[in-house]
Amino acid sequence: MQQRPLIGISTGDVNGIGIELIIKTFSDHRILELCTPVIFASNKVINFYRKAMPEINFSYQSTKDFNRISHKQVNIFNCWEEDVAITPGQLTDAGGFYAVKSLTAAAEALKERKIQGLVTAPIHKKNTQSNEFNFTGHTPFLKHVFGANDVLMLMAAENFKVGLVTEHVPISEVAKYITREAILSKLNILKDSLIKDFGIDKPKIAVLGLNPHAGDEGLIGKEEEEIIKPAIKDAKHSMLVFGPYSADAFFARNQQHKFDAVLAMYHDQGLIPFKSLSIGEGVNYTAGLPFVRTSPDHGTAFDIAGKSKADPSSFIAAIYSCIDIINQRHEYEENRKNPMKKVTSSILANAVDEKIEENEG
């Protein structure tokens, strides 16, 4: 049997709901039957929030050495020792600094193969920005750290997946990033991920248009005719891909259920229907990386931070998705190891000796 995977967890903004979600999620020790959690934080930060939720039974062991990781309980990997000024619900420099510290420690553990997957609690785009961390979110940071040519932000729920061509880009600049090459790159990552990470042999993918009514044959913008349709035509040589569809009508008619995934052109076009229809069970998955990274489909929620009101459903789904995708990748790789050897062994095992009779003269 495959050993339970070590799943790293970054805290996100220490003033947001991330640590509360972590405590609520791992207070149910049944999850230890499926994975070994390693939380990149400090005892002091964890204890601050644990004391605020005395009704929740959350226990852990603390370490600074991966050789001392316990597979029988939650592990806190101490990334810092100093006291941190925690002010729940406030956007502070300290909140961003320690969010990045947790994330970079987890990313380093991934590079060194100390952990097999990563679940990231939410960060805030504003207070994480610095000369050392000049990224608009987790996805571009992890793409940079691991030198990936391209990655795909993929929102996943049961039977409903939405990928994005552009991510955190101002609406006024979206169109310039919609290119034939970008669409083809995202489609290829999406197809490969659906096959390897989600076990869908021949995925069907829908592509949305950029403009209202998918451009109305060029009357409302030229991107569909000049960029999106040619990209879809190119992609049809290697995958089942359809569109472009008008985004409003597509989701209003529940067309997403006829496809294994949808490729949206920009953030809100994909995430508004996804968050509205996934009912709190959505997960943000970064496809195209050499490892598995998931996160909940929401932000830091400063308005309820520190009030023990945060719903852990999406964070729990992110943990289970991380485990499932790791196991699915393992199964995919196992099934493709020297397939001729497996076929030959199977044939020989079922072979019946044939008696060869010589013709008598």
Short description:
By secondary structure, this protein is an alpha/beta fold.
Mean pLDDT: 91
Shape: globular
Order of helices and strands: EHEHEEHEHEEHHEHEHEHEEHH
Q: Which structural category fits the helices and strands?
A: alpha/beta
How are the strands ordered across the major sheet? 3-4-2-1-5-12-11-6-7-10-8-9
- Biggest sheet statistics: 12 strands, mixed
Structure summary, number of beta strands? 12
Terminal CA distance reads 59 Å
Low-pLDDT runs of 5+ residues are 353-361
C-alpha Rg (nearest Å): 24 Å
SSE arrangement:
Blueprint: E1 6-10, H1 18-26, E2 36-41, H2 43-51, E3 61-63, E4 75-78, H3 93-111, E5 117-120, H4 138-145, E6 152-157, E7 160-164, H5 174-177, H6 180-196, E8 204-208, H7 223-235, E9 240-245, H8 247-252, E10 261-264, H9 267-277, E11 283-287, E12 292-296, H10 313-335, H11 339-350
Parallel strand pairs: 1-2, 1-5, 2-4, 3-4, 5-12, 7-10, 8-9, 8-10
Antiparallel strand pairs: 6-7, 6-11, 11-12
Helix pairs in contact: 6-7
Describe the structure.
By secondary structure, the protein is an alpha/beta fold. It is 36% helix and 16% strand. The protein has eleven helices and twelve strands. The protein has helices at residues 18-26, 43-51, 93-111, 138-145, 174-177, 180-196, 223-235, 247-252, 267-277, 313-335, 339-350, and strands spanning 6-10, 36-41, 61-63, 75-78, 117-120, 152-157, 160-164, 204-208, 240-245, 261-264, 283-287, 292-296. It has a twelve-stranded mixed sheet, sandwiched between helices. A hairpin with a 4-residue loop joins β11 and β12 (292-296). α6 (180-196) runs parallel beside α7 (223-235). The longest helix has 23 residues, at 313-335. Residues 353-361 have low confidence and may be disordered.
